[in-house]
Amino acid sequence: MGFKAREGGGLLDFLHAPPSAHITSDGCVLRPSHRRCPSGGHSTNGPYSPFPIFPSPPSLHERDGKTAARGGGETHRAAASRRGSDHHGRAGARYEVKRRLRRSSSYSSPSPDLQAEAKALRRKEGASGLRLASDRPAATVAGFRRARDSAAAASDMPSFPSSGASPQKQQHNARRRQLIRQQRKSLPIASVEKRLIEEVRKNDTLIVVGETGSGKTTQLPQFLYDAGFCQDGKVIGITQPRRVAAVTVAKRVAEECNDQLGKKVGYSIRFDDSTSNATRIKYMTDGLLLREALLDPLLSKYSVIVVDEAHERTVHTDVLLGLLKKVQHSRSIYANKNGKILPDIQDQSQYFTLKACQGTKIDPLKLIIMSASLDAKCFSDYFGSAKAVHIQGRQYPVDILYTYQPESDYLDATLVTIFQIHLEEGPGDILAFLTGQEEIESLDRLIQERARQLPPQRSKIWTTPIYSSLPSEQQMNAFKPAPAGTRKVVLATNIAETSVTIPGIKYVIDPGMVKARAYNPVTGMESLIIIPVSKAQALQRSGRAGREGPGKCYRLFQETLGIDDIIGFDFMEKPSRTAILKSLEQLILLGALTDDYKLSDPVGRQMARLPLDPMYSKALIVASEFKCLEEMLIVVSMLSVESIFFSPREKLEEARAARKSFESSEGDHITLVNVYRAAKECLEKSKNANAKEKTMEKALNRWCRENFINYRSLRHACDVHSQIQGHVQQMGLNVSSCGDDMVLFRRCLTAAFFLNAAMRQPDGSYRALATSQSVQIHPSSVLFQKKPDCAIFNELVRTSQNYVKDLTRIDPVWLAELAPQYYATED
DNA sequence: GAGCACTGC
Prior knowledge:
Distance between the termini: 7 Å
Radius of gyration: 29 Å
Strand content: 15-25%
Number of helices: 26
Strand order of the largest sheet: 5-13-6-12-11-7-10-8-9
Number of strands: 27
CATH topology of the domain at 18-97 and 397-564: Rossmann fold
Largest sheet: 9 strands, mixed
Structural class: alpha/beta
Low-confidence stretches: 1-163, 562-571
């Protein structure tokens, strides 16, 4: 018996295409998921033109043995590059770069009326530090920041001890408080407090452009509080794109307020809420505020919402801005009508929302959008010509240097630049941005080889890599100071762009590339590709050189190439129509939406409550009907985190053996359940031995190491599990186990993931039924060698070929039986 | 018989 997808099928996980997706010329949606690519031209203009050539010093390329830095062991890349530079016949040429003496960040040309407004404001403003963003000269470098003086940069913040008892400690704390007062007063934003509050009172929406070190993130919420924006128990909410920022800034502000964290100032992020009823200044992740808006569509407890780091353009921030615009509108209608809601509002959903709030006092919502030095005008346009103000920052100046010619091999160019800096520039550490682990490792080897050939009297080079999958102990090496007479070279992915700040960096090398996820809506396939960085990223990277003193940034590309195309950047763009329609279609197939695209009740509403991929949310609802929700909760939690299995290259055989004990011949899902249960058992054991929580975690950590399980991922999965469990219990779903009935569980997986089914073909390959694509089982699957006739899967990725991952063997008959809306038997 | 940048709920 054969199967075919019903008419109208043939779609895959379009839900993954974010509103920010770019479509390339070959139909691929590019998803630089974390940060948008402002100069969208890179990804939309089709194939990227050859990369700028970076002139290489002859010493690194000669093979005649005369120069100090020669040496074998080049990577394939470096060798290829050498051929290229030989061709240019540049032996003996002096290596130099074009020098720019000022920061080259600039705004796109402001509109005439914004310019006029700017002039008017400037006249009024006089010498104050506040002015319209659009009026900002291209290359302002405001007052220098004294080292270790930034109260604004979250990652720089010292942690202050809470008030203690001893006299010395009290004295110490008093000194701390004095220091904090001084620091606050010296921030650029301090001098414009009154003016800023005035603008907030006058405008419902205000764009604040603040450079690094201006103090906007920590100070503005305190100004608002002092100005009375928290009267009637209202809250000021400040969103951040990253968890760590929300936590560290909240801690700092609580300290500045001389208050305990969780009282007046608190933070709220997933799995970690430190707010109370007394909290008036609340820092949170943008995604969390989105979740809150589901429960309270008017966000009625907030008087002001500050969206910080809006220039980073995460999907969450983008959606949040659109949502806040709507909330603002609803609340102003409500406030204007004095609580009397008439059903003459066009948007029906708005009417019901307002109706539900009748009787409570709701004021208009103040919205402040804070962004680093990017284009404020786009935010302003999006919010109906909202006013924009600019606050100067305190960053040391950074010289930006570009290459004269295009470079075809950025890895080689990076190597060359590192040695040029090392041999010609003064002391200071180097930070080089690369795209991934493999590049970092190979460049590391190359540097070591060349460094060994330096004359003995030269100072030494010490390389230290940092990327997210590197164990934290090894990550910490990058933060250690280099020994005397040694220059530290940090080889980093974009983790060092925003997530971590490495002290001592004076030189930044930016090859201008980044690894990004690409999503193809036609095939539903994801892959990782290397694309040029955005202007925002380049700016952020160069800023890393000016945190402790004047620095230099070497950009290994020409100034004029795509990356400066800020004018062409389309802010707040919509996803493609096809992508929207396809995702709606999938949501309908999952039963989340009705045929007229409304959220279905109860399934759609229940799914929306769960912080999961829609397919996983649906799986939980299906599982409660199949009476195996306990197992499905585990599966969904384990699938929602990074890879659970850890297999270091040097211990591959041991890792494989360790995994054997968890393996189920039915597939990966049940294998994951086995791992989770074994981990729980380990925790139970130490709990029964009356161990403290810390000891229990240690035991789990050890167990993970012994079994080649990634502790971080497992811990995360446990957190997700308890959170989701709470949700499903609240929803009234019945959490029961199917015990040993694995057929029932596999049938349940089939009913839940029917969109992701693959059938074995006569030639031994597989065909994904929804898209008719030819796929292979990924070698990491326990079914890799088992070759089942039919399986459901949870991931479809394209690397060296098309792979499906996370599979479970199913009976093909179940598809038509359990998903008759999608599959029909052929007979 | 394969490799994976970074985030968030």
